[in-house]
Write a structure and sequence with these properties.
Layout (H helix, E strand, L loop, with lengths): L12 H5 L1 H4 L21 H15 L29 H8 L7 H8 L13 H15 L4 H15 L13 H5 L1 H7 L36 H12 L4 E6 L2 E5 L1 H10 L4 E3 L2 E7 L3 H10 L4 E6 L3 H6 L9 E7 L26 E9 L6 E9 L4 E9 L4 H10 L1 E6 L7 H12 L1 H5 L9 E4 L6 H18 L26 H12 L3 H15 L13 E3 L10 H6 L14 H5 L5 H12 L5 H16 L7 H6 L5 H10 L4 H15 L16 H9 L4 H10 L2 H6 L12 H28 L7 E3 L2 E8 L11 E5 L3 E5 L1 H33 L2 H24 L4 E2 L2 E3 L7 E6 L2 H6 L6 E5 L6 E5 L6 H17 L3 E2 L2 E5 L3 E5 L12 H15 L4 E6 L7 H17 L7 E5 L3 H9 L3 E12 L6 E11 L7 H7 L4 H38 L4 H14 L11
Parallel strand pairs: 1-5, 7-10, 9-12, 10-11, 18-23, 21-26, 21-27, 24-25, 25-26
Antiparallel strand pairs: 1-2, 2-4, 3-4, 5-6, 7-8, 8-9, 13-14, 14-16, 15-16, 17-22, 19-20, 19-23, 27-28
Helix pairs in contact: 6-9, 17-18, 17-19, 22-32, 23-32, 25-26, 25-32, 26-28, 27-32, 30-31
Protein name: DNA mismatch repair protein MSH3
Family: Belongs to the DNA mismatch repair MutS family. MSH3 subfamily.
Subcellular location: Nucleus
């Protein structure tokens, strides 16, 4: 049906897009596609259907029969001369004219060859749908598909490729592309070969006739993709194309697998696409899977590109964002949300850089370390010596929770270090129980190892440049410049005066740490995050003298951050965490990981918890209200420092800080706050100090515009006058458009004419269908309904073009102004960080006060160092077990009286031995965190370490058997334990034979209890070996205790049963009741009877042998002492020895 309401010679949108197709006959035969692959002629309806589809796709002037508006069509400048009307409409009418025919004529016509439609008659949508469906059915290896691909390549060589010059579809095409790929196609005639095959007798001759391969011709966009992928081979790149981000080739396959999106071929490459507004959601999933993700954005806008000299070239693109698990800082959420999409909002997910130096051999090395937590900007440094076990390195990694390691090239680290890294990187479930990231640990390698001089020069150059210029990051290592508005700026807080002091601070770092720092700076520059190193106040030493360093084994065995099953619920952190803010949770986690050893700081924290628990001062009632609904201010401040914060995030941060700074009145001195606790006074006094900074920022910042994302309206006119200049230019253009409207009213004789806006296209001139033929021929028809036709005049097109150019200039200048505002705000980052840190301390203290309010918790009393080594706990309970179940049996433990420093604990299996010693260790940790403990009374000495060796398991990935693990852990404890340490050894020696195990266990116990006084720790030794109980009786300062039980007859069947009382009692246990435990496990009764009988025999035999050994030793001693006496005197001494029990009577007389 021909289009309605079209004036002769009037240009339309579709006429510009289908000019080439309009000059071609609608049903012209194609020499390259006339038959199906089988050689049979295509039926008449196949050609008709294809012709119909092709006509509907290319005829853009058709007006719908209903009142709905047509979808928006891309505006194109009209040609200078009107195009002539095409004769294709008359041809189509003739084609579809119905003519009656006889039956024989119809049969004759059906046997004639009818041409298949050519590729030029199909739309891009239909072409891709056919290709997808064909490959689904036949596969890429099918000969028909191969022939068709080769034929298309030959057509491209002859200039038949009808692709866009840019290789990019329009926005509208991209919008529905993925859906079209999934729908497929049912037009099976698309399987036709592009070469005509003669039907008849030539059977099978075409199988070996493979078409000659031709060189692939890439579109300009594909060439861009190939270039950027070659520059970043280790990055999964997502390219901004229209309204989507697209991954190509192998990246598309990986994205399809991880994101569950479709991967399909397009032109010369495989692609997978995601919507623009879902970028961060999908990028987060790729990062969690272990990929390094890069975002390639268009660095040109359409309006400015159209006005430039390279308007016919593809959009320039560059890598503007780069992400890994340790550098993901793109989310700012409150506690109520799932922060950043990662499992644990308190997890550090840090980047740890290591540098190693051999100290004579692989056994001992020096290691330099830099750990960066991008979410908060915290930087931790350390240099330490480590043994062949690399226990010191493993402990630090457990505390720092790395998501990514930055290591020297392969071969530059020792074998022991590489083995540990492979173990941690390959066993996420193992490492998660001690705090390392639960996802697979990512490992990056540097290109080379810098010497100390090279590293020092690089670091000092970085700080000098930062101090002089307020340095920006390099452009994502593409080697090409990018648009300043799209590049991430480095925020500098170092001025010329402080640059020297900053370099002096860096010069104090240990040499290997400086080398690691240089590697970190180079690495994070490509991510736009190097600015965190400019705030040297963020640097913290890992080894603090006033804090306890808990080993990896202790973190795991005491379940501080995760249970042995790897769950958060049931851990100590789960019990203590009542925080309301994310940065408060981070503070509490740091306190748990590093308990205090400084009595003064510990008492200050305890005083603060006690005062909050009492809650008498009305000033403290404001704190809980202040903590509610706070965003992650630590991460927000870091994002501002990196230049990543959005306008909405900045508004959220400023309003939150404004609320914080106005909750309490400013004071000159912390003591003026008026509370008893000095720590509370300091924390509250720090909150209002940023009030003037926030007040000034809010006066210059339009919060309502920031919520809408309107950067051009954020600031007053006098702050950034260049923004107002562009706004004035836009107003002038809009005034010109209004003047043009007056002329249009006169021309159309419609005094009330107004511009219309439809589907985002504004300044449309609506003309009734009956008057559409009267408009000038140079008016551009945009869309139509049943009642009106909409146009753009040449003047409107010119004005809109000018307006869009000014709008894009305004957008670029607004981005620059917003960046400058963030620079000014980040100059006060120190006072802002102190405010956030003070509120985090208040949140953590409030959480500890909530735990202290639980029934049965008491404030521990710390004994000064001069008072000896004391461990007195009355009514002790296991904190997590009590929280999970209420019926926990309390116990009492007293060590330190009369020089007692050791405890050998025996008892039945499942009698509660391990749980009791864990409860003791947890109370020590809780007390030195600054929390009340689950006991009715607690008197404790300050401990410098809690060292544990518990459980039995092998570590095959490290090449260590069960006993080797036990022995190495025990050796490490013996090496580092001091007189102020608490040592827990649980069933040492059970990983080897009974005699070897007893020998090792007794030797370790004896060594710990007989070493020098200044190295003799408080030791809790759990064992089933009765020989250790005997040894404990001979050692000074060691006592025997056991877990109580009761043996009784079952009232039902009379069988003996054991009831566990879970109470500590003096003396050794008489039995371990292993067979009873086996019965509880469900072993067969007959087998248990045999086991009981054999156990009795073995016990009797062992007792006989022990008795015989004692008798022989006593006789030898008597002979040595009284060997010269007469027989009567010797016989008298024997009788006395028998009476005193020195020797025992036996059935056989020994000479």
């Amino acid at each position: 049906m021909p289009p309605k309401s079209q004036a002769p010679g009037q240009p339309t949108i579709s006429s510009f897009f289908t000019k080439k197709a309009a000059n071609q006959a609608p049903c012209a035969p194609s020499a390259s596609a006339s038959r199906s692959p089988s050689g049979a002629a295509s039926p008449p309806y196949a050609a008709a259907t294809s012709s119909t589809l092709g006509r509907r796709q290319t005829n853009g002037d058709h007006i719908r029969s209903d009142d709905e508006d047509e979808p928006p069509i891309k505006r194109v400048r009209p040609p200078t001369a009107p195009s002539k009307p095409s004769s294709s409409s008359r041809d189509r009418v003739e084609q579809w004219r119905f003519t009656p025919r006889s039956k024989q004529a119809a049969l004759d016509e059906s046997t004639e060859e009818l041409p298949l439609p050519t590729s030029s008659q199909r739309s891009a949508h239909e072409e891709e749908r056919h290709n997808t469906f064909r490959k689904k059915l036949l596969g890429d290896a099918n000969p028909i598909v191969k022939w068709d691909q080769a034929a298309k390549a030959a057509e491209r060589d002859e200039g038949g490729d009808g692709a866009d010059e840019d290789g990019e579809g329009g926005a509208d095409e991209d919008e529905d592309e993925s859906q079209d790929k999934q729908e497929g196609s049912s037009n099976l005639h698309r399987f036709a070969s592009s070469t005509a095959i003669r039907s008849g007798s030539s059977k099978g001759k075409g199988k070996n006739a493979q078409p000659s391969s031709s060189k692939v011709k890439y579109t300009p966009l594909e060439l861009q993709v190939l270039d950027l992928r070659a520059k970043h081979p280790d990055v999964l790149l997502l390219f901004e194309v229209g309204y989507k981000f697209i991954a190509y080739e192998e990246d598309a396959v990986n994205a399809s697998k991880e994101l569950n999106v479709m991967c399909f071929p397009k032109q010369n490459m495989r692609i997978a696409s995601i919507p623009v507004h879902r970028l961060h959601i999908h990028a987060r999933r790729l990062i969690k899977a272990g990929y390094k993700v890069g975002v390639v954005r268009q660095t040109e806008t359409r309006a400015l590109k159209a006005a430039s000299s390279n308007s016919s070239k593809p959009f320039t693109r560059s890598l503007t964002e780069l992400y890994t698990a340790s550098t993901w800082v793109e989310d700012l959420e409150t506690v109520g949300g799932d922060e950043s999409g990662m499992e644990n909002p308190v997890a550090q997910n840090s980047l740890v850089a290591l540098v190693e130096k051999m100290e004579g051999s692989d056994e001992r090395v020096s290691i330099g370390l830099i750990a960066v937590q991008a979410a908060t900007g915290a930087v931790v440094y350390d240099q330490f010596m480590d043994s062949s076990m690399r226990s010191e390195l493993e402990t630090r990694l457990a505390h720092l929770q790395p998501a990514e390691l930055l290591l020297p090239p392969l071969g530059k680290l020792s074998k022991s270090t590489e083995k540990l890294i492979r173990y941690l990187a390959g066993n996420p479930s193992t490492s998660s129980s001690v705090g390392i990231a639960s996802t697979r640990l990512r490992v990056e390698r540097t290109e080379s190892v810098l010497t100390y001089n090279e590293a020092f020069n690089r670091v000092t150059s970085f700080y000098e440049e930062a101090g002089q210029t307020g340095m920006q990051d390099v452009d994502m290592a593409d080697g090409e410049g990018s648009d300043p508005a799209s590049s991430s700026k480095q925020r500098s807080v170092i001025d010329d005066a402080s640059a020297g002091a900053t370099i002096a601070t860096v010069m104090k770092l240990p040499p290997l740490t400086v080398q690691a720092l240089a590697a970190c700076i180079s690495h994070l520059r490509s991510f736009g995050l190097a600015s965190m190193f400019k705030v040297t106040g963020n640097f913290v030493s890992f080894q603090a003298r006033s804090e306890m360093l808990l080993s990896t084994g202790t973190l795991h065995n005491l379940e501080l951050f995760a249970t042995t099953e790897g769950t958060y619920k049931g851990s100590l952190c789960w019990l203590l965490d009542k925080c309301k803010t994310i940065f408060g949770k981070r503070t509490l986690r740091r306190w748990i990981a590093r308990p205090l050893t400084d009595v003064k700081r510990l008492e200050e924290r305890m005083d603060a918890v006690s005062e909050m628990l009492e809650g008498k001062d009305p000033l403290l009632s404001k704190v809980p209200e202040l903590l509610t609904k706070q965003p992650d201010l630590e991460k927000g401040l870091a994002r501002m420092l990196y230049g990543r914060a959005t306008t909405n995030e900045v508004a959220t941060i400023l309003l939150a800080l404004n609320r914080i700074t106005h909750q309490f009145e400013p004071v000159t001195h912390p003591g003026d706050v008026g509370l008893k606790s000095s720590l509370l006074n300091e924390s509250i006094a720090a909150l209002p100090r940023a009030r003037s900074v926030i007040k000034t920022a809010l006066q210059e910042f339009n919060v309502s515009a920031a919520r809408k994302g309107e950067k051009e309206n954020l600031f007053p006119e006098d702050k950034f006058p260049e923004l107002q200049d562009e706004k004035d230019q836009i107003s002038l253009v809009e005034a010109d458009l209004e003047e043009h409207l007056i002329d249009l009213r006169k021309q159309l004789k419609r005094p009330t004419l107004q511009y219309a806006t439809v589907s985002g296209i504004d300044y449309l001139v609506e003309v009734r269908v009956g008057d559409a033929k009267k408009v000038p021929a140079d008016w551009l028809r945009i869309s139509a309904t049943k009642s009106v036709v909409r146009f753009h005049t040449p003047e409107i097109i010119a004005h809109i073009k000018r307006r869009d150019q000014h709008r894009e200039r305004l957008e670029a200048k607004a981005k620059e102004a917003f960046s400058t505002f963030l620079d000014e705000l980040c100059e006060h980052s120190t006072v802002l960080r102190n405010t956030i840190s003070a509120l985090g301390n208040l949140d953590a203290l409030t959480s500890l006060a909530s735990v202290a309010a639980l029934p049965g918790y008491t404030r521990p009393v710390f004994v000064p160092e001069s008072g000896g080594d004391v461990l007195h706990l009355t009514g002790l309970r296991h904190p997590m077990s009590e929280a999970l179940r209420d019926d926990y049996v309390p116990n009492d433990i007293q060590l330190g009286n009369d020089g007692q420093k050791g405890l050998v604990l025996t008892g039945a299996n499942m009698g509660g031995k391990s749980s009791t010693v864990r409860a003791i260790a947890l109370c020590v940790v809780l007390a030195q965190v600054g929390c009340f403990v689950p006991a009715s009374e607690a008197r404790l000495s300050i401990r410098d370490a809690v060292l544990t060796r518990m459980g039995a398991s092998d570590e095959l990935a490290k090449g260590r058997s069960t006993f080797m693990v036990e022995a190495e852990e025990a050796a490490e404890i013996l090496r580092v334990a001091t007189s102020r340490s608490l040592v827990i050894l649980d069933e040492l020696g059970r990983g080897t034979s009974t005699f070897d195990g007893q020998a090792i266990a007794s030797s370790v116990l004896s060594y710990l209890m007989t070493r020098e006084t200044h190295r003799q720790p408080t030791t809790l030794f759990i064992t089933h070996y009765t020989s250790l109980c005997t040894l404990a009786e001979r050692l000074s300062g060691v006592r025997n205790m056991h877990m109580a039980f009761v043996e009784r007859a079952n009232p039902v069947d009379g069988e003996k049963e054991v009831v566990f009382l879970y109470q500590l009692r003096e003396g050794p246990a008489s039995s371990s009741f292993g067979i009873h435990c086996a019965a509880l496990a469900g072993l067969p009764r007959a087998m248990l009877e045999v086991a009981t009988e054999r156990a009795e025999k073995l016990k009797a035999e062992t007792e006989r042998r022990m008795r015989s050994k004692r008798n022989k030793a006593a006789r030898r001693a008597l002979k040595v002492v009284f060997g010269k006496g007469d027989g009567e005197e010797l016989e008298m001494l024997k009788r006395a020895a028998l009476k005193l029990g020195v020797i025992e009577m036996e059935g056989e007389r020994e000479s």
